Amino acid sequence: MTKAFIGIDAGTTGCTVMIFDEAGRALGHGYKEYPCSSPHPGWSEQDLGAVWNGICDASRQAVAEANLPDEAYESVGLSSQRGTVCLLDDRKRPLAPSIVWNDARATENAEEFARHISPEEHHDHTGMQLSPLWTASKIAWLRDRQPELFNEIAWFANGQEYFLHMLGAEKWETDPASLTLNGMMEISKLDWSDRILDLCGITRDRLPPVGIPTGFVGTVSKEASEATGIPAGVKLCRGAGDQQCAAVGAGVIKQGLAEFTVGTAAVMVAHLDSLDRIQGKNLWWGGHGVPHHWNIEGAAFALGACLKWWRDTLGSDEINLGRDSGTSPFAVMVDEAGRAKPGAGGLLFHSFLTSQVTPYYDAAARGGFLGLGLHHSRQDMLRALLEGCANEMRMVVDAFDSDIAGGISELRLTGGGTKSPGFVQIMSDIFQRPVHVTWERECTVLGAAILGAVGAGAFADVDEAVGAMVHIERDFEPNNNLAGLYDDQHQVYRGFYEAMANGGAYKKHAVFSEKHF
């Protein structure tokens, strides 16, 4: 009989649930969107009840599509948002909406932290750059700005442990792979940092203890079974944070391996056997989904969002062509870009529509077309859009090669942005290195399912499970004839950014925008 493993990815904008067999083949799929709210500028909150309902709805869809007997189900593994803090009472009930990872309310608290720990020391201690985006600053903000709520909170939890609790978990623990964007972990010990907790104004008794990914936590309760359609008694196991799950789902479990998830944002993750491998500070470090190991990360926050922006604002032609041909507007965009010459006739596109993350961490940076001339066509603009996204990714890839002793020996690509071979080829050409696309693009839910399968005892360890369930679909080799062109293009691309950043143009523009808009 088929053995079935459920992966749940409770993301920021929606929940994906997939069911896989022992070979990693998808048997059922479900998805449900839910919103975030922004009650004040810069705030981002989420109703935990809406996320739970999304998990239930997506689970029912996946179970119905798989149409398997109850006894086929072996385990559930969960992937959750990192850096989103759940504010719970002593019975683990929400007291207020969760504060989402991209909430920027705590700027002053991060500045206060910097008076007690330098940014360099903070990075060495926690693995993270000092930032108001991490959970630590937001807990301190609650202490200072909403003391009544702060004092009522019994548990500052992550989605990982809260939603497992809702599914029926009896053990109340978190894991290092879910704590990366909390900024509250002592990275060398993969455990809470008492020093950072003191800056937040809390002690360990208000936080779940730190276990390991794959940890068995209980079984699906009768109530959760009725809500989700998942049979009661199925084993529940911790997965990891979303990007660590994506890395496991792409098979990135050995030193030298890395994966780049190309979605709305693009996040690159590499496996680390030891922190001694780190030789730079362009990236951030955390616990991996492989127990007792680390990972290292970098990101471009608006990659897929750039393509969506074109579709929604300038893409009526692509929408109409896609409708007529029965394909997606994004596929049409890539096909049109393929009709332009490499280099887009000298046109460049900066893809920093929300900020530049790795390696400059410049919140004021914004995107734009550069070098636009009367001779440029719509196809050139689309080509520049794709090449610009790939050039920002190259900055991240280069940071990994410089920051890890030995660099990256193999790069795998996952996510919706890899569905078009033309776009993947542009990435390979601009990186000037081979890339490998995984068979299952939804690597986050696959990784969660793998960690759940290991925790339930279906596989001896993560290595065995990955060997059985992760497969490469296609390899792409760079066009060496384009190496000179793209090296020159990248230097100009990066040079434009540095000239504007170092000259203060981005900051002046930010002040102008805030003043007038």
Automatic annotation (TrEMBL):
SUPFAM superfamilies: Actin-like ATPase domain (SSF53067). GO terms for molecular function: kinase activity; phosphotransferase activity, alcohol group as acceptor. This is Xylulose kinase. It comes from Rhodobium orientis. GO terms for biological process: carbohydrate metabolic process. Residues 5-249 form the Carbohydrate kinase FGGY N-terminal domain. Keywords: Kinase, Transferase. Residues 261-455 form the Carbohydrate kinase FGGY C-terminal domain. InterPro entries: ATPase_NBD, Carb_kinase_FGGY, Carb_kinase_FGGY_CS, FGGY_C, FGGY_Carb_Kinase, FGGY_N. Pfam families: FGGY_C (PF02782), FGGY_N (PF00370).
